[in-house]
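Holo prediction — magnesium ion.
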Amino acid sequence: MIEVNGLRKSFGEVDILRGVALSVDRGEVAAIIGPSGSGKSTFLRCLNGLERFDAGRVEIDGLVLRGRSEIPASGWARLHREVCRRVGMVFQGFNLFPHRTALENVMEGPIYVLGVNREVAENRARRLLDRVGMSDRLHAMPRELSGGQQQRVAIARALAMEPRAILFDEPTSALDPRMTAEVLAVMSDLAGDGLTMIAVTHAMHFARRVANTVHVFGEGRVIESGPPEQIFDDPREEATRILLSSVQAA
Ligand code: ADP
Ligand code: MG
């Protein structure tokens, strides 16, 4: 479903991604772990077309993105729209529309981007908010919701676009342990339903329990990939061992 090869990206003189390669099957849950500043967020932004990259190839369910020099600016706008429809994104900071209720936040994309009629969009939004355990707060404004509740609305909003995959960028790192557990429970539930997911996360217990594959980022590359048991219990790379011991110490 997602195949990345030789992805390179620099900001000015600094090489941030130096040839990332990774693939994710349909229905797979991939966790990405890595030190702060190793390019994880930049990588997700390249995957969903928020950021153009310098070289390499990204394929998402048949749609191919290439480096800057291979896709003219005029062709990029169309590709960007296509990729946004295929890949949902959930951010650390929730990013809900502040002046819309939970229900409206989830209805907006389908109505204005997909052209779905209001009644259909509302029914779907109610169903999705129920799925993330928010059916009793449909008319609440984001400021009236806890961080965990806002993040669950953000997940419903991403699902409402019927994406082929959802990317999560540290979705629980702004949350306390109880709210973290609420959000991780929703993510586990979606994984159980076969949603294809890539999650950048510090929640190692989640990665161990829910991910099919863990990818370790370091110095702009994937330095090691494997099933959670292998990465956590028997890492091959020294950098992985250092990362895991720093997390356990924290
Ligand atoms: P991570 O998510 O792994 O912490 P990021 O992808 O956010 O890492 O950032 C990787 C590096 O790229 C950091 O050093 C960051 O300062 C730099 N960076 C990220 N975005 C930009 C940008 N728009 N302009 C310049 N530098 C950036
Ligand atoms: Mg980040």
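READOUT: The CA atoms of residues 141 and 191 lie 28 Å apart.
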